[in-house]
């Protein structure tokens, strides 16, 4: 590994740092975006049981808020459940915007890494070719050993930059799609609870949220 980095020249170090950062972001987002951590199974039904049985107090709402992303959204609506449907929905939308921002945490950095690592590889290629032409100018084309250093620098940095950029771009797109799906599901669950609490939906429909 160290020999590979040396062969690619100094630009291999920022590419390596980008690789480590991208790996850390991908691992952290996969852990944080597990469905059970964002949308716990049966949460809406549990909240409705609290409402129906008169057990929904501040302690339950605080526990709901700290338990998951969906719980944070539902807690915002439940705090305003006596102020009408529109106010309840507005509070959910306001907190929902913050939740979506938190779900997208670090993805901008992952996108930046996917964009700049090919450029770093290209810069390394240019620097390697400059070395090649400088060698040709000073020593001619007969010294293959002297030329190989510049050529290897050009090829290694390009390969390294693409090797980091391709998976970073793939996971950037994949995680964005995963977040979009989770957001849509949270919206559906939140609106379902609003409708039931405000009497615009049959109570039995809450049971479908546990499936």
Structure notes:
Helix 2 (12-32) runs parallel beside helix 9 (144-197) and helix 5 (58-67) packs antiparallel against helix 6. The chain starts with a helix and ends in a 14-residue tail after the last helix. The chain is an all-alpha fold and 211 residues long. The protein is 80% helix and 0% strand. The radius of gyration is 27 Å and the shape is rod-shaped. The protein has one domain (10-201).
Descriptors for this entry?
80% helix, 211 residues, mainly alpha
Ranges where pLDDT stays below 50 over 5 or more residues in a row are: none
Give the overall form: rod-shaped
Query: Class by helix and strand content?
Result: mainly alpha
Largest sheet: none
Helix proportion: over 70%
Separation of termini? 49 Å
| Structure annotation, total helices | 9
Summarize the structure.
With 211 residues, this protein is an all-alpha fold. 80% of the residues lie in helices and 0% in strands.
Summarize the topology.
Elements: H1 2-8, H2 12-32, H3 35-38, H4 43-52, H5 58-67, H6 69-78, H7 85-103, H8 107-139, H9 144-197
Helix pairs in contact: 1-9, 2-8, 2-9, 5-6, 6-7, 6-9, 7-9, 8-9
